[in-house]
Amino acid sequence: MSETVKYETQDGIALISVNNPPVNSLSHPVRSGLAEAFSAADRDTEVEAIVLRCEGRTFIAGADITEFGKPMKAPSLPDVLSLMDSVGKPIVAALHGTALGGGLETALSCHYRIAAPAARVGLPEVRLGLLPGAGGTQRLPRVIGVEKALDMIVSGRQVKAAEALEIGLVDRIAVTDLTEEAIAFARELADSGAAPRRCSEQAVDSGALDAGFFDRYRQATAKRQRGFEAPQACIDAVESATRLPFTEGLEAERELFVKLISSPQSKAQRHLFFADREASNVAGLPKETPIREIGSVGVIGAGTMGAGIAINFLNAGIPVTLLEVQQEALDRGLATIRNYYQDRRKKGRLTAEQADACAALVTGTLDYADFAGVDLVIEAVFESMEIKHQVFKRLDEVCRPGAILATNTSTLNVDEIAAVTGRPEDVVGLHFFSPAQVMRLLEVVRGAKTCDEVLATSMKLAGRIGKVGVVAGVCDGFIGNRMLKGYGREAGTLLLEGASPVQIDKAVHQFGMAMGPIAMSDLAGLDVGYRIRQQRRERGDNIPASEGAVADRLVELGRLGQKSGKGYYRYDAGSRAPIPDPEVDDVIREAAAELGIERSQITDDEIVQRLIYPLVNEAALILEEGIAQRPGDIDVVWVNGYGFPVYRGGPMCYADEIGLPAVLDKIREFQSRYGDIWKPAPLLERLVAENKSFADL
Ligand code: T1G
Description:
- This protein is α/β, with parallel strands linked by helices.
- The chain has four domains: 5-261, Alpha-Beta Complex (2-enoyl-CoA Hydratase, Chain A, domain 1); 297-472, 3-Layer(aba) Sandwich (Rossmann fold); 480-594, N-(1-d-carboxylethyl)-l-norvaline Dehydrogenase, domain 2 (Orthogonal Bundle); 604-696, N-(1-d-carboxylethyl)-l-norvaline Dehydrogenase, domain 2 (Orthogonal Bundle), CATH 1.10.1040.50.
- An eight-stranded mixed sheet has the order 12-11-10-13-14-15-16-17, sandwiched between helices. A six-stranded mixed sheet has the order 1-2-3-4-6-9, with helices on both faces. The chain has a three-stranded mixed sheet with strand order 5-7-8.
- It is globular, with a radius of gyration of 29 Å.
- The chain starts with a strand and ends in an 8-residue tail after the last helix.
- (2S,3S)-3-hydroxy-2-methylbutanoyl-COA binds next to β5 and α3.
- InterPro entries: 3-OHacyl-CoA_DH_NAD-bd, 3HC_DH_C, 6-PGluconate_DH-like_C_sf, ClpP/crotonase-like_dom_sf, Enoyl-CoA_hyd/isom_CS, Enoyl-CoA_hydra/iso, NAD(P)-bd_dom_sf.
- Its main location: other.
- It catalyses: a (3S)-3-hydroxyacyl-CoA + NAD(+) = a 3-oxoacyl-CoA + NADH + H(+).
């Protein structure tokens, strides 16, 4: 056996234990150890039944994703599982932690399954752009039926032990000791002469499915998981299970799996899996940096952002004191929070007790003195440096030593905010994205004086409230919004040059963004950008005449976006559905004429390049300046904060997939047309010159 798979026998029961920390993934040593152990148990005439279990915090959590893209070393997982299928003695799988992917497929190649009460099982391969490639699409429908199998495989969701028992995926739930009860279960089977109950020999129950079932399922899935290839392949594989004998079904599954694993989508989704985890590693931060205890939080500002921020902490069981300057605003904020929990209870997302418990954790105050004992304060007040200074001076006076003072600013300089306090080392930016209780991204903005403890505590806290924390340096717009500038600029220029709002939004939606830039402006409100451009003009910034040329006209016509029932689009009362409006086309044409811009047809490809490549170019500058730690962090920002399509892995992953030479060529072409706003970033030029990609950084 390999050192990761232990084999022992006691009283006629073979006990096979996997020990491959941290999650017992099916690396090559584990696969070969399992093959040896099951062969030995099958040959050993003393052995009457077999138990498969795992050491550590979880049963096998899947194939070893780090081995993907490298030559597969025999035995492959399907080989191991078919060997298990041929074993002539009952095999019991003892499941704890998260039996996922290849782990659940291994458990399905056992004949019986017992689970710890807190165990969860699932086939999350679809989230890696894959499908269960070791028989899961063929065995699972045979155990729990086609529809339940499709739900698990296409959603990739985890199923709790109780539900797994209910649907027949596990036979028993352990009461005290999982291993002991698994051995007792095996002993019972041996004593009763029970034969191996092979999933592969069970029939697929698809009688109730009418002829159109799978096509309807495909259509519904294509809507729910727009643009993803893997969910469709999952459906194809499960459909094969209803049409083909087991062995041929395995072949059909294998064919689909091989196609997916080399696909750009799967590479992108696997990239994000690791980038998501890598983001929490802050370069240069000693592992043993102390973490400050955050037992209570103060939030200043009870508007949409403030209430949303508060909800994140309440959901994590952390008491929140919400501070406003007027009672009416405070009451509104508290009502927003309480209604949120009532709404989640009504939707069955929370039990009544959970909803009440969360809502009870928030209190309101008009008095800064009530922040004297909190461990962390987050301000979400109006984006004005003067107001932020007033707030942070008060916080510096009232908060206890060691309290973390955070700003949710999205545009202002965190160092300038920290400078008005006597404790700049305790000041950090915690930039939430709206709606704050939904968006997973949290930019953790490290000020020049932010100390390691505050940074480490902020990153840990991000995970605790269900966010993905990404460290950003101080600059205008940090990572995401800084990149967004070029994106918004190009959207405005494309309008003037001849692309309609609908064409731009459709091209970008087709690319995979959740929403196009024009519709997004209507959602955010055109007056936001209008006010910023006005402020910049007042302070003498040199803003090109084309920037905001259309948006400013629309604002002056009272078209502020969804909030005023019309912006770039028209909106029927109570609807958010954008309706093209010929009046806006006239405004665009007038603005173009005044600027002497000749309008013409623009291809969808160019629209996508003009919008996405500025992201890549600005990101290269951000990396060079050390504002972001690594390309993967920037991908995590854009996928979790701006709706960049998961199956393209983020702007950096996408640029690598296109090929940096092609991206640079295009940027140079646009530079020749539009000047130095398209000046290629030196890092991009260097990578191309060295024949490297962002992934090499
Ligand atoms: N392979 C390799 N490393 C893995 C891994 C895996 N499958 N899963 C986790 N890790 C690493 C992870 O990178 C991190 O490393 C550490 O373990 C702890 O993970 C044939 C083809 C199991 C729920 O998709 O969902 O089977 O950063 O921080 O929050 O059909 O990990 O410490 O160096 O996430 O407690 C299918 C993926 C694979 C499960 C635990 N399985 N993993 O969450 O810890 S494809 C999955 C998870 C497959 C078959 C197909 C989670 C977790 P480091 P963590 P966690």
